[in-house]
Every structure is written in structure tokens, then in C-alpha cells.
Amino acid sequence: MAELQRKDLISAGVHLGHLSQKWNPHMASFIFMESNGMHIIDVNKTLQQLKIASRKLQSIARNGQKILLVGTKKQAKSIIVREAQRLDMPYITERWLGGTLTNFITIRRLIKKMTSVERMMKSPAWQSMPKKEHLMIERDKAKLERLLKGVTELTRLPGAILVVDINREHIAVKEAKKLGIPVFALVDTNANPNLVDYSIPSNDDATQAIGLMLKVVGDAIEQGLTMREEDKKVASVQQPTTASEATPQAARKSSRVQKVASTESIVALQAGTRPTTDTMRARRTTRQVPGAKSTVPKEQLSRPTATEPTPTRKAPVPAQHTAKSPAEPTEDKLTKQPDDATSPVERAVEAVQDLAKTSGSEVESLANSTA
Q1: Model confidence pLDDT, tens digit, residues 68-81
Q2: Which residues contact 249 (CB under 8 A, 6 or more apart)?
């Protein structure tokens, strides 16, 4: 990009615009002068815009996104196919199908249909089909290949599109703007540069000018792809190193935390209180750190904690099998009754005896009175 000079652009005819009567007023800032009824493009502005677009395309390619090249005019078809195949990028050089971006699911369905037809033609069942069906299937396959050959590997929406002649590819520009996809375009003096995100003022009718512009842009995209591969290599090399460096640090940190946690746990158990929440969290953290060696005995880590000290249990006394008389109340019943109280049976017996005494005295009194 740094080697490109103004004379290279002039020799390729990049500065030649359309007739002055066909110009677009929005291109006034990119027009240098008018000569013989033809507008001349300012090549300094072309170099400036080309640098900006190349940097942006390079960053997009470095991020791993696809860039769709679009150009259906005769002068640009072969150049776009060559650059797209060199960069392994999708391209469209035939008629732009409406909804290629906004209805991408349908386009993917057509691509799957084309691949299924190709598999069917290689299968043994193809030989048994009638000749008429052969002709119909081959005709449909040829049509799909002509329209979708460049986007068969496009599994998702592209990160950007590069357009040659936005007046001719206005549908593609509208779909990309609707979806928020950045648009890069070669804009001639008869087009509106405000319709695209990154405009490159250039002659979009001369094959030599289109070839030079796409070559510079393609080199920037290729640099972005190379930088992406280098980033992958660096990441793959740094990942094991980072893991090996992090393990000793994690072990040292966990040992320090574990020592503090163990000290607090011992003090809490001796005092008969429950360890704090931070201590318990630190204990759990140290157990989960990989590669950390525990400095606390297993008995202390597995010892249960309680709000009060656990009382010591006495050994159970073996029960003595002794026969108890039915008249004697059990020890439990005697403990439950007060000392000055009698049992209900004794109370009933006493009440009957009192009743008998009173009845006998009354009978004697009645006999004496009658006598």
C-alpha cells in the first residue's frame, strides 16, 4: 500500500470520471476539475480513502469474518473471480438474487439443493433415471451453479461487502445497509458516496483501474488473514505457558489461605464456637484449587462444627431383667407423683370404707329409735 503512488493511479485511468452532465452533486468533494466535458477525480482523495478502507478490511479479515465481493458488470467479473479465489472469499458475478442477504435462509436452502443434486448424480440411481429427467435436473443444476457458485461456502452473513459500481448493485447495497453490514465500494462521479460506509472514488468502468483497486484491497485482506494465522500460533504457544505459570501461584495462594483457615478453625473448635463464614469459604476454596497441597490434618477438616460444644455420651448400662410384682408401682410412676398424694385406687377404697361406716351408724340409730 505504501508503494502505490499517484502516477500509478493515473496510468491505470483511475482519475477518469463520467461526463459532466451525468455527475452526482454528492461527488463534488472528490472531483478535481472538469476537462473536455469530463470530470477528473482527485487521486489524492482516492489514496486517502483507499488507505482507510484497506485498514478496515484488514481488521475485518483478521477477526475471521468473510468479505463478499460483488460485481456483475462485464469489466469486473473476471477480476473479482480471480481475487476472490486468491483470498478464499465468497463472490457474486452474476445476477444478484433478491434477498441474498435479507433472506439468507432461502439462499442456504438452494445451496443445499444444489449439493444434493450433485450427490445424486454420483449415485448408482442416476443411471436408472430416464434421459428426460437427466436433462431437467442438469438444467436446474447449471442455473443454480451459475448464480450461487461463489457463495457455496458462505455459511453465515458476511462481515462486509465490496461492491463495484453501486448504481448497478443498488439492491445489494440496500440489503447490506438494512442488516447493518459495512459496505465498501468503488464510486464513480455518477454515484452517491453517501449510500456506502467506505467509498473509494475511482473509475469503475475501466478494467485496468478496477484491477488495480481490487489488487490493493486484496493485498490488505491477505495481510489480515496472515495476521490471524500468526495470532492463532501465538495463542496456542502462550496457552500452555500461562497454565504452567498459574499453577505454582495458585498453590502458594491456596496454602496461605489454608493456613489461616486452619488456624481459625482450631481456635473455634477449642472455644466451642462455630467457625466464621469467611473461614468456611476459605476452606472450600482451598479444597477446589487444583495442584494445592493441604497443610491441615484430615481430622480437623472433617471434624463437625456446632454452635455449642458436643457433650460426651456415657456408655449405656445393660438392663437387668428382674421380675416386678404387679402391686408395686414402677419407679417412673412414683417419680411422677407428688410425695403427699395417693393413687386413685387407694382413694376409691377409702371412699367406700367411709360410706360403709356412715351407713352402719345410720342403721343403728334408726333401730334405737324404733325400739
Answers
A1: 999 999 999 999 99
A2: none
